[in-house]
Amino acid sequence: MTDYEATGADRVVMRDIRKRYGMVDALRGANLRVGAGEVVGLVGDNAAGKSTLMKVLAGTVVPDSGQIVFDGRQVSFATPRDARELGIEMVYQDLALCDDIDVAGNLFLGREPRRAGGLLLDIKRMHEDARRQLDALNIRIPLTDIPVGGLSGGQRQAVAIARAVTFGPKLLILDEPTAALAVAEVETVLELIKTVSSQGVSVILITHRLQDLFRVCDRLCVMYEGTLRADLDARTTSLERLVSEIVAHDQPEGARS
Amino acid sequence: MTVTSERVVTTRSARLTAHIGSHAQTIAIGAVLVLLLIFFSFSADRFASVGNLLNLIRQISPTLIVAVAMTFVISTAGIDLSVGSTVALSGSLLAIVLQQGWDPTLALIAILALGAAIGFVNGWFSSYQGIPAFIVTLAMLSILRGTALRATEGYSTPIDGELWIVQLGQGRIAGVPVPAILAVVIALLGWLVLTRTPFGRYVVGLGSNGESLRRTGVNTRRVGLTVYVLAGLAAALAGVLIATRLSSGSSNAGTGFELEVITAVVLGGTSLFGGRASMLGTIFGALTLGVIANGLVLLHVSPFYVQIVQGSILLLAIFANNKMWARFGAVRK
């Protein structure tokens, strides 16, 4: 029931993705489809395979088997750079920031503006661009030249999201972006997601905060033990239905495998 | 996290605190250096002369050159214990090949290439194979020292004073010793590379959060390997400088050299756990060691005390610095 055929309107289609770590079957033939400009909530209990599936999509985990179709073209990623070149950006649960590098440096890590024929960092431009982009995203961080280790959890998350958003991705994957945030900062992130998707960027949102999902998502995909268990319309699904799918209470037949 | 904690870093004083916090140890070692300079200027007659200070920089130049490279290594949370043995092997082999009639320029290039190759092996094992750098370079320390002893059979090999290469160790340009010029140029280059280039940024990132850096698409293994190549290259150059200074290549050169270099780097505030690097601190640290050695000799103190004092300064500096970090605890975790 949750196997997809690729169509022209889809940004990405993942089919029968499998990944095994020793004795652990992290992914047992998972499928996922995301349309252009669509916000998809990816939910499931711990160890359901959400993060692994997203790491496959972001190129940091190479699957054992399976097919990924991006913008109608079959692709495979050996490194994160391969995925990034297609416009897939991921913000990781464990905050992929370097604590000892300043805000602007983290925003541009791996693709710093350069001068002198690429030999030197263009530090001045880096700080100017960082300021402009933080302001554009309504992120309140007054100084771009202090190490991110000195920022609050919310500010660090904002920097991590800003890093992904500001390079114009086609698909943005957010892994638990609101887990460590204060209430006001959650609102900012949810607004950010709406803004981004309205510009045609597809968003996959992994979160345990189910109330967030109904506010921003178009579809809710539920994973269970390494497979996609259900694909629900966020506008018509109730919270109770979603929870029962996540804990897999009803009819284990059919939906599994 | 409350909204108020968000304002922690919004004020100018907070910015100042953050900057002092991240540079606390550089400032501390700079202060120690100044105090030592003042102390020896008053207590040792000939200390504060231009001639002696140039001499001091010449004496410390091999340490400084390798410490600059070691700063990169330690910034990635690595370590290179093999630099002392590399000094011995490169100096010994330089003397041997010169004795066999090699062209000095060719010999110099070959020795530097050897140093880079040694660094490549260190880097390949530690960065690409994931073996702890401590073990890899400890093994290399033993292998290289043994190779140097085998090549020389334990004897020193003289270097002909007529060859131009001897000028590297003994020459002066406008009155300034060549090793001192080389050390200053390399230290400035090291500072530029560490703070102003993408590579320097990635070195710090690798030590700070290597997985994060890898996920941004940077080839972190190559960065990790390159720092060892730099260290090997610097150690070979230091070996050449020491051998040409003494007009002799000895397999016993550079004993304990790696520890002196690491002391200089750690004194300067570069964290052994990676991520936090200060090239200025390394320069201060190396100069501090040089000032202690030079000043104590001028005071006619037994040279055996030099290591005792250097070690004590290291311990005190780290101790004081930990206390300072505690004060800036909001910034450094």
What do these coordinates show?
The complex is a heterodimer of chains A (257) and B (333). With 257 residues, chain A is α/β, with parallel strands linked by helices. In chain A, the strands form three sheets. Chain A has a six-stranded mixed beta sheet with strand order 6-9-10-3-11-12, sandwiched between helices. A four-stranded antiparallel beta sheet of chain A has the order 2-1-4-5, covered by helices on one side. Chain A has a two-stranded antiparallel sheet with strand order 7-8. In chain A, 32% of the residues lie in helices and 27% in strands. In chain A, a hairpin with a 2-residue loop joins strand 4 and strand 5. Chain A has two domains: 1-87 and 172-257, P-loop containing nucleotide triphosphate hydrolases (Rossmann fold, 3-Layer(aba) Sandwich), CATH 3.40.50.300; 97-167, no CATH class. Chain B is mostly helical. In chain B, a hairpin with a 2-residue loop joins strand 2 (172-173) and strand 3 (176-177). In chain B, the strands form two sheets. A two-stranded antiparallel ribbon of chain B has the order 1-4. In chain B, strands 2-3 form a two-stranded antiparallel sheet. The model of chain B is unreliable at 1-9 and 329-333 (pLDDT under 50). Classes of the chains: A alpha/beta (257), B mainly alpha (333). The A-B interface holds A 58, 60, 79-81, 84, 90, 92, 96-101, 105, 109-112, 114, 119-121, 123, 140-143, 145-147, 149-155, 180-182, 184 and B 1-3, 5-6, 8-10, 15, 18-19, 21-22, 196-198, 201, 204-205, 207-209, 211-218, 275-276, 330-333.
Features:
heterodimer, A: 257 residues, alpha/beta, Rossmann fold, 2 domains, 6-stranded mixed beta sheet, 4-stranded antiparallel beta sheet, 32% helix, 27% strand, globular, disordered C terminus, B: 333 residues, mainly alpha, two-stranded antiparallel sheet, disordered N terminus
